[in-house]
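Weekly puzzle thread! Below is a chain. First person to post its structure in token form gets bragging rights.
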Amino acid sequence: MIRYNSIRSVTKFYMKKNKYLKISKGKKLRYLHNYYKKKLYIIFLPGFMSDIDGEKPKIFKEYATKNKLGFLAIEYSGHGKSSGKFTEGNITKWSLDAKISIKKIVKKNSFILIGSSMGAWISLNQFKYFKKQIKGFIGIGSAPEFLDRLMWKKFPKKIKNEIKRKGVSIIKHGDSKVHQRQYEYPITYQLIKDGRANKVLSKKINLKINITMFHGQKDEVVPVSFSRKVLSIFPNAKKNLIIIKNGDHSLSQKRNLKKMTKELSNLISKVS
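Winning reply:
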């Protein structure tokens, strides 16, 4: 029986030396990891420009530790403290980062994927390589194909022309008056074009697994229709869509994380 105890502070637990996985010459990825031989793993794949210092990877790792399950979370190249430049990355490269990390660390063990925002897109790409090992999938504010469907589609003509001409543009996101801060990040033309080459919402995945999508009712970044589209490509799966009342895109509040770990326990109980 999987146990879920009340979420408590994990700050001290995570103040450890960073771990890095060397995946090629001069390239290393920062990661979080629990190891239990021949045990089910939980794999967390973060979102666009995210790292593994947030609440979700910490709570899922704590959950895995309490229940003696394997755990892996990575920072893609150009993200967080991993090596590489963000402007040189794309969905193909970040999906490869995940693939190599899983092969090196999880090896032949079965696992449940948890993908947050862009991490759900990266997760869907992993089904090409690990169909026999994937036993469940949880999406959080899932955003597959967001680069073209959400970003490029909404960019004004001036920004599109700048990206095409210069190869990159610095995009500002967030209202500093409302959110107290504004984010800036570079969007490259190669990133947009690579995103178009990584279409996943038109390809059926015929696995009989349990899948749950969490989506915030007030997600200001990604519409809930994206989570519904993810569910639609799994015709044989047992599917569940949980819409969090008043929830935002990150769903990192303690009450939401508790719902996720409860659902994770539910998925694990159904793994044969």
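Puzzle host: Confirmed. Bonus trivia for everyone else. The radius of gyration is 18 Å.
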